[in-house]
Amino acid sequence: MRPEIQLFIADEPLPDWNGSEEEIDRRYQQLQTIPRPVTAEEAEALTACFGPDDCYGVAWTLLHLIETGPGPVAAVSPPGPDTADNDWRHVLWARWGTTAISRPDGPSDRADQRKASVHEVAARRADPHL
């Protein structure tokens, strides 16, 4: 695993919205120094770095970095009862689900996947038993 990724992972999960501006900027800058694409091992290790919310968009940068890796995206656990108010965990669940998924072949496929993810999140909010 490359040193830039080891350093990012060592700093633990992303801070929440209450994190200091300096901390959030530092974590964003760390992500920017990581060369793309990541390896499958690095992508899987980075999935543990999501915090409780989107960290002012930094979590989206992390998600897109993970998705540069080869092969399927790592599976995530379903959001539990303690994550009822954590939209970020619901986004990950809707995007990656319980099993690893293959990446789409082209831009239109990715756009379709994003649209489906948004609808799945809305459906889960309407009926948490989905």
Any chance you could write out the topology, listing elements then pairs?
Layout (H helix, E strand, L loop, with lengths): L2 H8 L10 H12 L7 H7 L11 H9 L20 H10 L10 H20 L4
Helix pairs in contact: 2-4, 5-6
Number of helices: 6
Structural class: mainly alpha
Which whole number gives the mean pLDDT? 75
Give the end-to-end Cα distance, rounded to a whole number of Å. 37 Å
Percentage of residues in strands: under 5%
Domains, number: 2
Number of strands: 0
Order of helix and strand elements from N to C terminus: HHHHHH
Q: What does the overall shape look like?
A: globular
Helix content: 40-55%
Question: Largest sheet, if any?
Answer: none
Could you name the ranges where pLDDT drops below 50 across 5 or more consecutive residues? Answer: 100-116
Q: How large is the radius of gyration?
A: 15 Å
